[in-house]
Specification:
single chain; 412 residues; Rossmann fold; seven-stranded parallel sheet; 13 strands; 15% strand
Length: 412
Amino acid sequence: MPLHVAYLVNQYPAVSHTFIKREIHALERRGVTVQRIALRGWDAEIVDDTDRQERERTSYVLKEGIARFASAVLSIAIRSPARLWAAVRLAIKVGRRSDRPVPVHLVYVAEACVILHYLVRSRASHLHAHFATNPAEIAMLVRVLGGPPYSFTAHGSDIVDSPAQMGFAEKVGQSAFVATVCAFGRSQIQRWVPHTVWGRFEIVRCGLEPGYAVDYTASAPPSNRLVCVGRLSKEKGQLLLVEAASRVAATGRRFELVLAGDGPMRAEIEALIEARGLWEHVRIAGWLDSSGIQAELRHARALVVPSLSEGLPVVIMEAFAHGKPVVAPFLGGIPELVVPGTTGWLYPASDSPALAEAMQACLDTESPRLEAMAAACRRSVWAAHNVDLEAGKLLALFSRSATSASDGTPPI
């Protein structure tokens, strides 16, 4: 009988969550039945056709309405009042240390009740959440209510922003396992949990599907275009990048900088571009679908990552697959992939002059050296970030979880 796993995400599909879609599809290629569950996203703007298909296959918890929530909670209250009370107590315990008020965590209990009924109907054997924030907490509450074993994948901002308020001891302690996308991520959670549960951590890297950047060619001459892909937000550091671009422009160097993305900082970024007189050099492309991002990477000399907070950005892997080296900060898990002088240039995080120097070094690198770096980038990414190989790791973990879940407490 095929393994049936449910995936829980805050919002799905989303432009910034392509790595989750790739992981799901890789599991399905291995014969796993994957049930998509998201809290929201049914009415989000979508630019990718495959995302539209994913939306049709996703169940949306918050779309259910108050009556459905009340019915789900009442059903569990009647059948398993002790479990419901245990979930409420756990939510209050985590909520007291959280930056979100306790009533919000009680809403998580209601959401968990709805999700449990999804899983009972589908007979899913495991629940996997992406991100260590509320999806992981809700998965934990589903388990307490009598649902299947759960796990979660921790990424970047979900483990470096306010980790003391995340309830890691409870989330990790009740889980079957915890996946992190890099060693840095594992280290950040290990700070907050007992040594006795360190054995539950597994590194399962984000990856690219076979055939990604299949049209790669090394014959095109390098351009003077640098590309930055990401949400226009404070933690992604585009303001720092514009300041660095101003320094590069002051040297008289010809270059183009493309910001692929959109977000809450767009107006402030545009104002800084205007103030520095950089419209000749900088273009904001807005949100792009997967093919649009690939097109920008194909025509770039390199990817620039100016982030102030990161785990290990998937866009670095995408750039490597296109044979593009990366200018990035010494930050998070980035040095686990970007090797100075081999696959890119690293600079001290938040240091605008150092970022400008790294950009200049990139622009000054001659074609033979760029070709050697391109080959190294492609070898590196396919050796460590093949999504089918990483899905194999997950399949083994899910299978182990389903096999060992004979604790005498079947779902209600």
